[in-house]
Design goal:
InterPro entries: GAF-like_dom_sf (IPR029016), HD/PDEase_dom (IPR003607), HD_GYP_dom (IPR037522). The protein has 29 helices and 25 strands. With about 950 residues, it is α+β, with helices and mostly antiparallel strands. It folds into 6 domains: about 1-55 and about 345-370; about 75-230, 2-Layer Sandwich (Beta-Lactamase); about 230-340, Beta-Lactamase (2-Layer Sandwich); about 430-560, Beta-Lactamase, CATH 3.30.450.40; about 590-640 and about 840-955, Hypothetical protein af1432; about 650-815, no CATH class. Strands 1, 2, 3, 4, 5, 6, 7, 8 and 9 form a 9-stranded antiparallel sheet that branches. Helix 15 packs antiparallel against helix 16 and helix 15 (about 585-600) crosses helix 25.
Length: about 950
């Protein structure tokens, strides 16, 4: 129903009609032909079975006919009247000849009313020879039961005679265990009671376990009988010829359903204990044969039967050639085998029919396509429009006028909508303002059918419009002057400045607040039919363009503002301390050069590394902000050049104390002089004390510089010097700010004058962490959401004089070094709080991980190498190289390029920076560009890059 509602293609209608008609006709012919072939095969099968039945019956008659004739003659033979074994043996030649001349006979025997028995049997196979334990070359076996002569002895004389094929006696043996009495056998008694020959039903022979029949007749004028055993093996072979197909099943049974013949001879006889019997149809695993036997079928009538897994055709054939014996052959043929030829014929006919139908279908489709091509192409074009594909342009080749016109209209509509899409895409995706205007203008000209166009942007400070975008190189002035802000004034004055005002359309571009943004000027070759509608349409579209222009200008302005803030922040950090002067400005330059090198790699570990434009922008911003946390670092810590320096260098305070001791020494001198002590001794004592103080202060001052490491002996000497005392007469709680006073009063104040040591670690020198301001850098801190893993010093500040003077190396205490390192914590926290867009989300990691080490010993997170991205590792390399080569830091001499790279190679070998990254940068000589731009000629020395790379790649012990 849905297909009917949608309509049917003319092409498929013609082709389908021809297809359906041919399909219907072909189907009827194929079905009829199949039924005819099927019926013919079934009739032929039944006829073949009838012919085989006649053949079998004729064979059965030939089987028993010669035997019956020989039996009739032997009924008159002296064998039946002979009284002794010797006399009976005289008739052996006749019996030999009779067996040789009748292949179906297996034995000839005579039964006597006295119970004697005389039997001659063929032994024509190895089974028979083994069964009777016959000598080699035996062809005949004579089995005898005879009365003993003159009544001597009891019972019968039982002797077996073995003859070869030439009737020569090979051996004879007594068989005392041979038991047989013909008078107990059915064939003997029936023959005595009948004047004619008797024929038994097929049965299993006692001696040979073959299935056969017995013919017997009473001897002429005697009560003795002559009998013959005839095997039905030949008849079974003839029956097996009825197996018309490989899957056919057949069996010959008697009236009691005993199996007389079967293709598998092992299924004819069944052994039960020590005895053998004939198998029955019920015991045979063939449901279809049982169904044929139980069905009331007429002879030779073919009928269909169904079993669980297959369809069959079955019939039964009577065997009437064995006199009154009721024997029939059951035959079942699988339907798929019987009708295989018919199905092959149908298959061939079906294939030919399909070929003809397909040819006619193609012919019909070709004819329909010729007729309905134009409509189909139009349908495809309109369907593309409904599927939002406006780029498809189909040229209709048809002589139908309406089709050509409709195609033109649909094409114009498609191009217009496609241009709208392109305009929308350009407004949304293009970041560059001039490129955006070029794309919008080009598609707008196409959509409106104009010939040319231009966009002017308003320059308020100059009071004119500047040409920003145009579709042609000439035809529009570079500048249009402004003579008013209202649309009518703009239109009138602008048209006066154009070369072809009559063919021009001017639309003002306005911002959201209706202020002037620019002008859209377009030219047409042929005036449109509906000029007002065109102007309204272009005005609405121009409004969207104006908003996009305003938005793009705002975005560009915001980018410029952000860029300015970046430089402002970096300059503020660099200006804050001469110790990092220029660092925040130079690191981004170097980092961008190094990341470009990494992106250019085509082989090795970084062959797949690349950065998109947005990724590179994020990296650039991160490089500028990598030390932004330093803006929160205490300046006196960053610039600390001596050990006692805080906000000021406390060495001056210590020197003042030495001055006090100096004065104390002089006072003591004069006091002793006034007391009348010898002047010379006092003079010597004063000079020695002053020299001691000079030496002690020199030692303290040198320790304060922090240029050399402080040994344990030096530290002990500092403590010894610091143990000297001096008297303080002034209250040290006066003139203090509230916070410092509170901290000082936490400890009891001594009574003035107070004796104090020259160097002391006082309680007020130590500031504990304010829990509200405790940095969340420890891994177990619940406020640590950034993954920091740093050791927090015990105290926030320790200004202890002895503590600072005995720093093992350098000028920074553990607390101050933490303050320095804390800048990176501030960097990550500050950047993480910014509402960064998705493409800038990684800025905190790139900027904040440049102090991490590849061996996991860096800070603030102790990241391992695999946990850091290449951008973060590049930042670390750039930061180190800039710090080593910086020439504007007052506390150190700048390193040369070779010295710096050598130090960095050692740092890489010690697990500080990524060795593969450094090796890649060295191979590309990535530092040379930075060195040429920022370093002096003396620093930019020659570098042995192969040696550095070899050192870097040499396994360390």
């Amino acid at each position: 129903m849905k297909l009917i509602r949608q309509g049917i293609s003319l092409q498929w209608l013609i082709g389908g009609a021809m297809f359906c008609a041919m399909l219907l006709l072909s189907t009827l012919l194929v079905i009829q032909n199949y039924q005819n072939n099927k019926n013919a095969l079934l009739v032929a099968t039944a006829e073949s079975a009838k012919q085989l039945s006649d053949t079998l019956n004729e064979k059965a008659k030939r089987l028993t006919g010669p035997a019956q004739s020989a039996l009739q003659i032997l009924s008159y033979d002296p064998l039946l009247t002979a009284k002794t074994l010797e006399a009976r043996q005289q008739r052996l030649p006749v019996l030999f000849e009779t067996l040789d001349s009748n292949d179906v006979l297996s034995a000839i025997y005579a039964g006597y009313s006295t119970g004697e028995f005389f039997l001659l049997r063929k032994l024509n196979n190895q089974v028979m020879l083994r069964k009777f334990d016959a000598p080699e070359n035996t062809a005949f076996l004579l089995q005898t039961l005879s009365l003993r002569p003159d009544g001597i002895g009891q019972g019968m004389k039982k002797i077996w005679f073995f003859y070869d094929k030439n009737q020569n006696l090979l051996s004879k043996i007594n068989k005392p265990d041979y038991e047989y009495d013909p008078r107990t056998r059915d064939w003997f008694n029936r023959a005595l009671e009948s004047e004619d020959q008797i024929l038994t039903s097929p049965y299993l022979f006692f001696s040979t376990r073959e299935i056969g029949i017995t013919l017997a007749k009473r001897g002429h004028n005697t009560q003795n009988t002559i009998g013959m055993d005839a095997s039905v093996t030949d008849l079974a072979a003839q029956i097996a010829m009825l197996k018309l197909t490989s899957g056919s099943e057949l069996v010959a049974v008697d009236e009691k359903n005993n199996i007389l013949a079967h293709a598998d001879t092992e299924k004819m006889i069944v052994q039960e204990d020590k005895y053998y019997r004939m198998n029955t149809l019920e015991e045979l695993e063939s449901p279809v044969l049982r169904m044929i036997s139980e069905d009331n079928l007429a002879a030779n009538e073919l009928k269909r039967f169904n079993t669980k897994d297959q369809e069959w055709y079955g019939l039964w054939i009577p065997i009437t050639g064995l006199s009154e014996q009721n024997i029939k052959v059951l035959l079942a043929i699988p339907s798929n085998e019987l009708l295989a030829n018919a199905k092959d014929i149908i298959l061939n006919q079906t294939l030919w029919t399909i070929v003809v139908i397909l040819m006619l279908l193609l012919l019909g489709l070709y004819g329909g396509a010729r007729i309905g091509r134009a409509f189909r192409q139009l349908t495809e074009q309109v369907r593309a429009l409904s599927g939002f594909d406006f780029s498809s342009q189909v040229q209709i080749r048809s002589d139908i006028k309406e089709a050509k016109e409709l195609s033109r209209v649909v094409g114009n509509m498609s191009r217009t909508i496609d241009s709208f899409q392109a305009i929308s895409l350009c407004l949304n995706r293009e970041n560059d303002l001039e490129k955006m205007l070029d794309g919008v203008l080009e598609n707008l000209v196409t959509a409106t059918g104009m010939s040319t166009g231009a966009i002017y942007l308003y320059q308020p400070e100059k009071h004119h419009f500047s040409l920003t975008s145009t579709t042609v190189e000439t035809g529009f002035p570079e500048v249009l002057t402004e003579q008013g802000q209202d649309d009518s004034s703009i239109l009138h004055h602008t048209l006066e400045q154009l070369e072809t005002p009559k063919n021009s359309l001017v639309i003002s571009l306005r911002k959201r607040d209706n202020s002037l943004e620019g002008l859209l000027v377009m030219h047409w070759k042929k005036a449109p039919k509906n000029k007002k509608a065109l102007i309204r349409f272009v005005s609405e579209l121009a409004g969207s363009a104006a908003v996009a222009i305003e938005t793009r200008r705002l975005i560009d302005g915001q980018k410029e503002l952000i860029e300015g803030i970046l430089h402002l922040l970096a300059d503020a950090i660099d200006a804050k301390s001469p110790y990092t002067s220029g660092h925040c400005e130079r690191v981004p330059q170097l980092a961008l050069q190094l990341i470009d090198t990494l992106s250019e790699q085509t082989e090795g570990r970084f062959a797949d590394f690349s950065l998109s434009t947005q990724d590179k922008e994020a990296f650039r911003i991160a490089a500028w902000l990598h030390d932004c946390g330093k803006i929160l670092s205490p300046e006196h810590v960053i610039d600390k050049a001596t050990r006692l320096e805080t906000i000021f260098n406390r060495i001056h305070e210590i020197r003042t104390r030495f001055e006090v001791l100096w004065r104390d020494a002089e006072i003591h001198y004069w006091q002793q002089r006034a007391a009348g002590e010898p002047e010379d001794e006092l003079k010597i004592e004063l000079e020695q004390r002053q020299q001691q103080l000079q030496a002690q202060f020199y030692l303290i001052a040198k320790a304060n510089e922090g240029a050399e490491s402080t040994s344990a002996d030096a530290a002990a000497q500092i403590h010894e010097i610091g143990d000297q005392t001096w008297l303080r007469h002034f209250d040290n709680t006066l003139g203090l700010a509230h916070e410092e006073l509170t901290r000082l009063l936490k400890t009891p104040q001594p009574t003035l004058p107070a004796k104090e040591k020259l160097l002391e670690d006082k309680p007020e020198h130590i500031m504990s962490w304010d829990e509200k301001r405790r940095p969340p850098v420890e891994s177990n801190n619940p406020d640590n959401i950034w993954g920091f893993d740093m050791q927090l010093p015990e105290y926030s500040v320790n200004f202890g004089e002895r503590y600072n003077l005995t720093i093992p190396f350098g000028t920074l205490t553990n607390e101050e070094r933490f303050k320095i390192n804390e800048h990176i914590v501030h960097t990550i926290i500050m950047l993480s709080t910014l509402p960064l867009p998705d493409h800038l989300k990684r800025i905190p990691e790139i900027a904040g991980n440049h102090h991490e080490r590849t061996d996991g010993q860096g800070y603030p997170r102790k990241l391992l190498s695999h946990e850091m991205a290449p951008e973060e590792k590049v930042m670390a390399v750039a930061d180190i190289f800039e710090a080593l080569t910086a020439s504007d830091r007052p506390y150190k001499k700048p390193k040369t390029v070779s010295e710096s790279l050598s130090i960095m190679v050692n740092m890489s070998l010690n697990g500080h920076i990524d060795s593969e990254l450094l090796s890649t940068l060295l191979q590309a000589k990535s530092f040379s560009g930075y060195a040429n731009e920022f370093l002096s000629e003396e620093q930019n020395d020659k570098v042995d890059y192969p040696a550095l790379i070899e050192q870097l790649n040499t396994p360390q012990p």
